[in-house]
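Worked example

This section walks through a single chain of length 153. The input is the sequence exactly as stored; nothing has been trimmed or padded.
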Amino acid sequence: MPRYQTHLWCNMIVYALVMSILMYYRFKLPSTYGELLVCSSLGSLFPDIDVKSKGQQISYSILCALLVCLICGRRFIIAAGLGVIGMIPLFVDHRGLFHRLWFIAAFSVFVALVLLQCMPSCGERIIMNSIFFLIGAITHVALDGGWRMVTRW
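Given that input, the structure is written out below as tokens.
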């Protein structure tokens, strides 16, 4: 089982390959290189959110900050919904739900749709960041179980 450092290093390699291809074809990116690297790195740690890991620590730190902001902004219903969603990893098996590509893709789309509702002017940027998050997550799943896990929906 690779450690989080291995997932991050492999993500960096895949990120560099994807960026090289995009630069070769002169693809105009709506996000900065650093922003995309952060999104793919978070994606590469995301599947291990269901076990005590660096990914879980980072995810819960971000969730905690979001909850504080939402509560201070008196958005209690959204905060409660996020709190419930944040508990899901505590109730699933490791390498179960969070290692399924359909779930990771659905999660990425769901987060993108929520962000698009909140910030419609950043549409292209949100979509590109979600794609790079998904690339990082696919890298993680492939590293954990090879092609067998990537093709397992």
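What to look for: The CA atoms of residues 30 and 125 lie 5 Å apart.
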